[in-house]
Amino acid sequence: MQKHEFNEQLFDFLAASPTPFHAVYEMRARLQEAGFIELEEQNTWNVWPGGRYFIVRNESSIIAWNMATGSDLATSGIRMVGAHTDSPCLKVKPNPETISQGCMRLGVEVYGGALLNPWFDRDLSLAGRVNYVSIDGGLRSELVNFQRPVAVIPSLAIHLDRDVNHGRNVNPQTEMPPLMAQLHGDDKAELREILKQELLANHVDDIAEILDYELYFYDVQKPAYIGLNQEFFASARLDNLLSCFIGMQALIESNSDQNTLLVCNDHEEVGSMSAAGAQGPMLKQLLERLAPDPEVRNRMIANSMMVSVDNAHAVHPNFADKHDSNHGPRMNSGAVIKINANQRYASNSETASLFRHIARQEEVTLQSFVVRSDMACGSTIGPITAAEIGVKTIDIGVPQLAMHSIRELAGSDDAVNLARVLSRFYRQQRV
């Protein structure tokens, strides 16, 4: 796939995926179109060589895989790629409604390590999952996405905060509740009723009572190219839906004769410890079902490899001193191998060498990132997955700026080039 076509499809995916629930919904549709069959975890499976399958857990995590024809799992192993579906954001509280100066606001929690200042003065919408009792008494769930701007967090005027440009700490409890409406007379400020009316407008007409929800605010601005020569693109949730899309496209297009797998977990931004997170049992349980015999499974894992794909910090032109001078990845100069002596990343010389060899075959350059020795290092699902199932792993990612902002920036060449390398990785005979 050519760069422009790849990026346009990426933009469509990002715009349609304001929450992990919507991201998995979109991935499910694209995988089904490519011939993948959905399996239910609670059912007995009939998995055959040559088949393409996927499972979904919590509607926010997904694993898709291809069973090779004439390939023995124990000796061939599985080529695995991992990413995560969640991004830092503002999550609505269970009882969020407050009224201040005649205005309706919703209380929010900060999900993950979000940069808070960029959330001010943005056109915000609301999306997520709603659980309800249907008219016939059954329990149902439905995705909701208002799509249009329905809220804003207005900044305080500089006239009322003269020191704002000299450093500002944001209080998420008192300063971050989004403003949703101005109330008049007997107007009610009831989120559940607002949700019910929105779902009714979208032809969900069997709602008796809304019981619960998981809702997130997001910026309605669409992804877009940036730069005089469209060198960059900007979007919300590049960390890490960009990696989910790259992995999905590589899996669909690889046409591999090998056993291949993509796992996209929820909850990475808050530690991965959940039933659907990388520190949970989802991937391990799948591998146990594919290879029930422990001897076969252990040999399979020993012959497998995981590529953990999560965006990397590009060197910032205005803050170059925040990087080690020999390890400052640049946008549009290739994906980044992420390395850390304290195992915050799972890369080692063996996995890095293999991945470099694959990239050279595609004539794609790679870069290296090591955090400054006087700064703390983040982490990914890579070390967690390696520890949970014992598979050799490498951490890589597209370099980006403004990580964890409401709008992030990446190079327009890097995503499609990494997809090419992952497609070749999926076709590797030996790892």
UniProtKB/TrEMBL annotation:
<dbReference type="GO" id="GO:0004177">
    <property type="term" value="F:aminopeptidase activity"/>
</dbReference>
<keyword id="KW-0378">Hydrolase</keyword>
<dbReference type="GO" id="GO:0008270">
    <property type="term" value="F:zinc ion binding"/>
</dbReference>
<dbReference type="GO" id="GO:0006508">
    <property type="term" value="P:proteolysis"/>
</dbReference>
<dbReference type="GO" id="GO:0005737">
    <property type="term" value="C:cytoplasm"/>
</dbReference>
<keyword id="KW-0031">Aminopeptidase</keyword>
<dbReference type="Pfam" id="PF02127">
    <property type="entry name" value="Peptidase_M18"/>
</dbReference>
<dbReference type="GO" id="GO:0008237">
    <property type="term" value="F:metallopeptidase activity"/>
</dbReference>
<dbReference type="InterPro" id="IPR001948">
    <property type="entry name" value="Peptidase_M18"/>
</dbReference>
<keyword id="KW-0482">Metalloprotease</keyword>
<keyword id="KW-0862">Zinc</keyword>
<keyword id="KW-0645">Protease</keyword>
<comment type="similarity">
    <text>Belongs to the peptidase M18 family.</text>
</comment>
<keyword id="KW-0479">Metal-binding</keyword>
<protein>
    <recommendedName>
        <fullName>M18 family aminopeptidase</fullName>
        <ecNumber>3.4.11.-</ecNumber>
    </recommendedName>
</protein>
<dbReference type="InterPro" id="IPR023358">
    <property type="entry name" value="Peptidase_M18_dom2"/>
</dbReference>
